[in-house]
Specification:
By secondary structure, the protein is an alpha/beta fold. The chain is built from ten helices and twelve strands. The strands form three sheets. It has a seven-stranded parallel β-sheet, with helices on both faces. β10, α10 and β11 form a beta-alpha-beta unit. This is non-specific protein-tyrosine kinase. Keywords: ATP-binding, Kinase, Nucleotide-binding, Transferase, Tyrosine-protein kinase. One of its GO terms (molecular function) is protein tyrosine kinase activity.
Amino acid sequence: MSLVERAIKKLQESAANSSAPPRPSSAGRVVEVAPQPVAAAETSPLRPHVERPTRIVNIDKEALRAMRLMPPTAMERRAASQYQRIKRPLVAAARGKSDPPIENGHLVMLASALPGEGKTFTSINLALSLAREKDLEVLLVDADVAKPHVSRVLGVEAERGLLDLLTDSSLHPESVILGSNVPGLTILPAGKHTEMATELLASERMHEVAAELAASSGGRRIVLFDSPPLLLSTESQALISSIGQVVLIVRAESTPRSAVLSAIETLGDSKPISLILNQSSIEPDAGHYGYGSYGDAGVSEAGS
């Protein structure tokens, strides 16, 4: 039985779902820092004088816990162990060590079939886990441009971001990437909303931006794209052609089997797909990933 089949089979297993206390409106704020020039290797003859933003995102992990976007302190060790298992094949593919090798394996799309599956929880926690890797950097991109939940949570919804890069070809990607108080983690917000989002994400410019995002750190960067729900948007389908790996988040006892199968069909067979079963009360075995009974249950995630 395949990984996907096994995970789908567990969808109807019981999962804890408790009411949530009041939560902060955001778990991050942008603070000013000294200007940071981009290294020569990250510039081009056409854009030789690029500077990084003079702002960083101060991520408040306790606020993330209060919003149920990080596991409770008592479950931290267990969560860390599970994320280590989850990220190992992703890191291997990003470094070209998977069998067979995956083209653009360092570009990873985090997707779900429907809203409320735990995608924002997964995106943030996977990014934090990857940031702890030696000799790697992680860039978290809010590509859910219609409902930019990651940008709102981190307090960067007013900052320039992905859509600005796609709209203005004169912008260097590094000029809008925000550093953070977490070593190894940078953030690319969704950017200014436009009705042309689907066309921009499907454009040749998107391919160029994705390539530049990955290449700027000399192959050390893994780029995580938090995408819109596959079955409720055209933006996520437009993004697929620019990435190398797909991680599909499924919520136990919530996501219909038909929705999972439709999402996989939408993704097609051109990209390798990893499937994460979220909020499962069943302890994960060696063949599938599970987070246990936590995540962003009860968090309003209408567009994620």
